[in-house]
Design a protein that fits this description.
Elements lengths: L1 H8 L11 E5 L3 E3 L3 E8 L2 E8 L2 E4 L1 E3 L2 E7 L7 E11 L4 E11 L5 E4 L3 H4 L3 H18 L18 E3 L4 E4 L2 E3 L5 E3 L6 E3 L4 E9 L3 E9 L2 E11 L6 E2 L4 E5 L10 E7 L2 E3 L1 H7 L3
Parallel strand pairs: 2-9, 10-12
Antiparallel strand pairs: 1-3, 3-7, 4-5, 4-8, 6-7, 8-9, 11-14, 12-13, 14-21, 15-20, 16-17, 16-19, 17-18, 18-20, 18-21, 21-22
Length: 280
């Protein structure tokens, strides 16, 4: 495997194998802030990797072959990007495949919110807690466990009322783009895991209130915020659709709703775009 990567990186072509299958890009155009899906359709691979910008992204087994989820961050400039791939079959034969991905800039809306000033400009006594929690979350978002996810589903059935990437003004001050998706869910609505995974954080945070974070494997992490109740413990294994808590308005929140954040290999990505990739 190491030899394969060294040869591929130095640009030396490898012999093409003669085995049945096709490496396919689900869509050749994606918006920045979304996810590209690469599928291998064919005989099982012993190893596969796709490279996007500075990331090597591995293919892992899926029905009919293998898949790779490629995060296209909000800050990725529009344009055409090569997706070189290296594949190894079960007999050790190696080939290279060259795909191409077009990133399109998506114009996202803006909104202005008025919150208690303490939640926009925290008091000095809150800053240490905020920094500690931010470091813990970043450490958690960096996890890259073996694949756990299977099928995907919405965490609630309620409509979206605040989309991913929306630019926000809080009390007139510009803030970072909205890091997730908000659902207009009533207080107490059951919240379910979007896919199989392991609970890696469950607790009360300054900004997100009662929060559950799930590691789905291969760098895919989901976060459920502002809950009124947490029903799972850290270390618990969940299946897609398992109950993890109830909707609330804890933390920095102006009313009952569910906030869902998804990180893929450290990048914030649109949760609804990920779910759409696997919709029936």
């Amino acid at each position: 495997m190491i030899r394969l990567l060294l040869i591929w990186i130095t640009g030396i072509s490898l012999a093409s194998p003669v085995w049945a299958g096709e490496l396919r890009l689900h869509s050749q155009e994606v918006y920045n802030g979304e996810v590209a899906l690469v599928r291998w359709l064919g005989e099982p691979l012993s190893f596969g990797v796709v490279r996007f910008r500075d990331k090597s992204i591995y293919l892992y087994p899926a029905e009919g072959g293998a898949v790779a989820l490629i995060p296209v961050g909000l800050n990725v400039a529009p344009g055409n990007y090569p997706l070189p791939a290296a594949l190894v079959d079960r007999q050790g034969t190696t080939t290279e495949v060259q795909l191409a991905l077009t990133v399109v800039h998506k114009v996202r809306p803006e909104e202005s919110l008025t919150l208690p000033e303490r939640m926009v400009t925290p008091k000095a006594e809150d800053t240490a807690r905020i920094a500690r929690e931010a470091a813990l979350l970043e450490q958690t978002f960096a996890l890259c466990s073996p694949q756990l996810w299977e099928r995907f589903q919405r965490p609630v059935d309620d409509p979206v009322n605040s989309v991913f990437g929306k630019r926000r003004l809080l009390n007139g001050k510009p803030k970072s783009p909205h890091s997730g998706t908000d659902f207009r869910s009533p207080q107490g609505t059951p919240v379910r895991s979007i896919s199989s995974g392991r609970v890696v954080l469950a607790g009360d945070f300054f900004y997100t209130g009662l929060t559950v974070v799930i590691d789905h494997g291969e760098g895919l992490i989901s976060l459920y915020a502002h809950l009124s109740q947490i029903l799972v413990k850290e270390g618990a294994t969940l299946n897609s659709g398992d109950l993890l808590g109830h909707v609330g308005s804890t933390g920095r929140s102006t009313g009952a709703h569910l906030h869902l954040t998804v990180r893929l290999l450290g990048e914030r990505v649109d949760p609804m775009a990920l779910l759409a990739l696997f919709a029936p």
